[in-house]
């Protein structure tokens, strides 16, 4: 059905929810000559007036995010292509988003594999990626991090040292995973996979790019160590929080870049076998240990908020094209697909 709709699209409008990474998505779309549509809750956000280059050409106001599906015909009349981001999928719900009958950039089948931590692990381990160990409740005998399923900006994570601490804090009405807590440096690596490009780092089909790297600023885990050990603070009722409040730019030792591309390549090749490919931007959330080995603890299969650091380019993206953001890279992929009559290969 989506493929039939695309046959009638002339000049697409790039649409997304006004949150997360929408500023760079709209800015990048405008740079590639596309019209833009911001989906806003209750009323258009006033702060867009402060950023005229990133303000959408038009707003579509909804009373609740579930209403987006009901406004399908309105989106299609504007030849809309929806760009998913973390907030968009979380607000609407992964299942509802998968069923949204509006052309969407990327492969929405990835949501089945990304939103379920068991399937996510199957995907990454099947690709030969090293991940933190995973434990059942009975096996916990060391520091672990407990995570609920879904993207919630780190608000659903907590550290525990034993089973008793987990049982005291965990919400058993939600699905959760218990992972080994790995000491090291966190690197959130921003990739872009194009199934229609031929120039660059070649895979079995298409090419792979690295557009930037960040680490998240999390409240209050990034500063809590100043007050004492986590165990001591816990006695006072102060527990670490992983709620993401911002991002910091990072670059890697150049000697680690081959490992970075090898990880991305393995993830894409396995995704091609499992569900037809993780198309467009994705992020491997990693820890680099003192032995210079990467452990991947999560994948985000869409544009991530850390890319907002690089709206005017990054130390990596600038070596592909000056001033290249992930938002602009998405728009360039759509433009290239349109020019080559291959829109259905990157929009589902």
From TrEMBL:
Names of required cofactors = Mg(2+); Mn(2+)
- Does the record's keyword annotation contain tRNA processing? no
Q: Which ranges carry the ATP-grasp domain?
A: 94-325
For this protein, what is the EC number?
6.3.4.23
Residues binding 5-amino-1-(5-phospho-beta-D-ribosyl)imidazole-4-carboxamide are 20, 87, 247
- Provide the alphabetized UniProt keywords: ATP-binding, Ligase, Magnesium, Manganese, Metal-binding, Nucleotide-binding, Purine biosynthesis
Which Gene3D superfamilies does the record match to this protein?
Answer: 3.40.50.20, ATP-grasp fold, A domain, ATP-grasp fold, B domain
PROSITE patterns the record matches = ATP_GRASP
Q: InterPro entries, alphabetically?
A: ATP-grasp (IPR011761), ATP_grasp_subdomain_1 (IPR013815), IMP_biosynth_PurP (IPR023656), IMP_biosynth_PurP_C (IPR009720), IMP_biosynth_PurP_N (IPR010672), PreATP-grasp_dom_sf (IPR016185)
**SUPFAM superfamilies, per this entry?**
Glutathione synthetase ATP-binding domain-like, PreATP-grasp domain
* GO biological process terms, semicolon-separated: 'de novo' IMP biosynthetic process
Annotated ATP binding sites: 218
Reading the lineage from the top rank, the first entry is: Archaea
Example of a GO MF term: magnesium ion binding
Record flagged with keyword Cell membrane? no
Q: In which pathway does it act?
A: Purine metabolism; IMP biosynthesis via de novo pathway; 5-formamido-1-(5-phospho-D-ribosyl)imidazole-4-carboxamide from 5-amino-1-(5-phospho-D-ribosyl)imidazole-4-carboxamide (formate route): step 1/1
Kindly state which reaction or reactions the protein catalyses: 5-amino-1-(5-phospho-beta-D-ribosyl)imidazole-4-carboxamide + formate + ATP = 5-formamido-1-(5-phospho-D-ribosyl)imidazole-4-carboxamide + ADP + phosphate
**What does the record give as the function of this protein?**
Catalyzes the ATP- and formate-dependent formylation of 5-aminoimidazole-4-carboxamide-1-beta-d-ribofuranosyl 5'-monophosphate (AICAR) to 5-formaminoimidazole-4-carboxamide-1-beta-d-ribofuranosyl 5'-monophosphate (FAICAR) in the absence of folates.
Protein family (similarity comment): Belongs to the phosphohexose mutase family.
Listed name of the protein? 5-formaminoimidazole-4-carboxamide-1-(beta)-D-ribofuranosyl 5'-monophosphate synthetase
- Organism of origin: Candidatus Syntropharchaeum caldarium
Organism classification: Archaea, Methanobacteriati, Methanobacteriota, Stenosarchaea group, Methanomicrobia
Q: Which gene encodes it?
A: purP
């Amino acid at each position: 059905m989506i493929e039939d709709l695309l046959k009638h699209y002339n000049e697409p409008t790039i649409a997304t929810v006004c949150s997360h990474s929408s500023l760079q998505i709209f800015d990048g779309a405008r740079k590639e000559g596309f019209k833009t549509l911001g989906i806003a809750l209750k009323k258009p956000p006033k702060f867009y007036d402060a950023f005229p280059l990133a303000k959408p050409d038009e707003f579509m106001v909804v009373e609740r995010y579930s209403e987006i599906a009901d406004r399908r015909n309105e989106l299609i009349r504007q030849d809309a292509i929806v760009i998913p981001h973390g907030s968009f999928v979380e607000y609407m719900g992964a299942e509802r988003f998968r069923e949204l009958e509006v052309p969407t950039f990327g492969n929405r089948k990835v949501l089945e594999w990304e939103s379920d931590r068991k399937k996510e692990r199957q995907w990454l381990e099947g690709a030969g990626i090293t991940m933190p160990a995973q434990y059942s409740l009975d096996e916990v005998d060391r520091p672990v991090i407990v995570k609920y399923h879904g993207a919630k900006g780190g608000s659903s994570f907590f550290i525990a040292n034993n089973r008793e601490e987990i049982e005291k804090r965990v919400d058993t009405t939600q699905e959760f995973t218990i992972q080994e807590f790995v000491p090291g440096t966190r690197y959130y690596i921003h990739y872009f996979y194009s199934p229609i490009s031929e120039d660059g780092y070649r895979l079995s089909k298409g090419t792979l790019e690295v557009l930037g790297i960040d680490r998240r600023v999390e409240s209050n885990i990034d500063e809590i160590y100043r007050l004492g050990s986590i165990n001591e603070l816990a006695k006072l009722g102060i527990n670490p929080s992983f709620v993401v409040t911002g991002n910091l730019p990072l670059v890697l030792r150049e000697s680690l870049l081959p490992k970075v591309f090898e990880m991305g390549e393995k993830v894409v090749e396995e995704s091609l076998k499992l569900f037809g490919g993780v198309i467009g931007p994705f992020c491997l959330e990693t820890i680099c240990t003192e032995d210079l080995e990467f452990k991947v603890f999560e994948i985000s299969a869409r544009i991530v908020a850390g890319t907002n650091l690089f709206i005017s380019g990054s130390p990596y993206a600038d070596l592909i094209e000056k001033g290249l953001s992930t938002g602009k890279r998405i728009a360039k992929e759509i433009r290239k697909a349109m020019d080559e009559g291959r829109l259905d290969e990157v929009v589902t």
